[in-house]
Amino acid sequence: MVRDWRQAPLSDADLALCRFGAKVTHGQHRSTEDDLEALRGHGFDDGAIHNATQVVAYFNYMSRIADALGVEPETFTREWGGAE
Prior knowledge:
By secondary structure, the protein is mostly helical. The protein is 57% helix and 0% strand. The radius of gyration is 15 Å and the shape is globular. The mean pLDDT is 90.
């Protein structure tokens, strides 16, 4: 999933949520009511959609701040898939 969520063994609901997150990240101005209806069709209520949008937006915000300020990755964490 770290490399490509589209190839991960996720449920249909989780894939829909990932599609929504990708759209919010890369094309939020193209989001429509249909995107929300797609999530509702997988059982997400408006509160869950709101929370998911907040989380996606927060991580986008933090990544942009870190990139803009040249923040280096912390040295005490290991890369995904790295040995412990």
